Amino acid sequence: MFSGSSSSRNWQTMDYDILVKIFTVLNLTDMVFGVSRVCKSWRFACRDPLLWATLNLNRLKANSADILPSETCALLDNQSSWWRVMCILKNAFNLGCNNVTRLIFHYSMYINDEHLVYAAIRFPRVKHLVLPPCNQITVDGFHAAIQRWQELVSLIVPYICSPSKIMQMISANCKNFSILKVMLPFDLEFATTLFIYLPGLKVLSLRSAMVEKNALTIILKLMDGLEKLNLSHCRLIEVPRTPGPVTLFREMDNSIIAKASHLKEFCYCQELSCSICLFEHTDENFLRWYAYDEGLWREDEITSLAF
Q1: 176-180: long-range contacts at Cβ-Cβ below 8 A with a sequence spacing of 24 or more?
Q2: Do residues 237 and 277 make contact, with C-beta atoms less than 8 angstroms apart?
Q3: Assuming Cys at both sites, which of 72, 146, 158, 174 could form a disulfide with 289, CB separation 3.0 to 4.6 Å?
């Protein structure tokens, strides 16, 4: 760029607010490994709190060349790549400090206790947390992280070990927690745990989960604070009290619809014309979280839960 006197303009003198506005459209890779290294003024703009309210790792791609320059190993679905995830978190902290209030991990990203605890220590102000299937995170790892995320309001996670224990930890440490999305079998134990430990729950999404009818009855009758419930693409079953066959409902039971009439929002879908329901119908009646790609997981009929 040239002025009227044909002298070149120095990009370090660009207006701060303009830089921040431009940087809002960049992805994490561009921010961390690109513009933040151009010059001091650009790095200073990259640290603006406006840019770090949300740390969205979901935009990262499986090819690590999109994440770490000069690397060719895969980032996702590879236990040997744990240090690469840690590197991303450390670089994000160097720029964003503790301004992150919304943390979104990639659906296929490998994370373990070390990653989760590090994120909790470095980003203690997180209110909204989106995790991948947590089959590598232990109960102790969750406990160490949740103790630091005392401002947590919402959790979206397809799979967690010992969900009842995790809900008890959230109850003990996160007094403002009110939004939960899981894709776990929803049985009597889980429903009872929510009623006892999370009576202030306002939004619950069980999208594409196996759901017991008597478990639903508990939360619909006893959890007065519940405002929104998503049962879209769920398998509604009834487990007999004595040994016997399980009943599978092909349509939403009318008694459940009646009990849910007081909710502000109640979503359900069990139509074979629906591609997701059809997929589940042909999947031998077993729901497998790993069969759902990141696009399906990111969607939700409750719009506030989509990301």
Answers
A1: 176/127, 176/151, 176/152, 177/152, 177/153, 177/201, 178/153, 178/154, 178/202, 178/203, 178/225, 179/128, 179/153, 179/154, 179/155, 179/203, 179/304, 179/305, 180/154, 180/155, 180/156, 180/204, 180/205
A2: no
A3: 158
Counting every residue, how long is the chain? 307
pLDDT band at 153 (very low <50, low <70, confident <90, very high): very high
CA–CA gap between residue 205 and residue 302 (Å, rounded): 8
Report the predicted TM-score, pTM, of the whole model to 2 decimal places: 0.83
Give the Å distances, CA to CA, from 60 to 2, 68, 206: 36, 10, 26
pLDDT tens for 243-295 read 878 887 777 888 999 999 999 999 988 666 676 666 655 554 444 545 555 56
Parallel, antiparallel or unpaired: strands 54-56 and 102-104? parallel
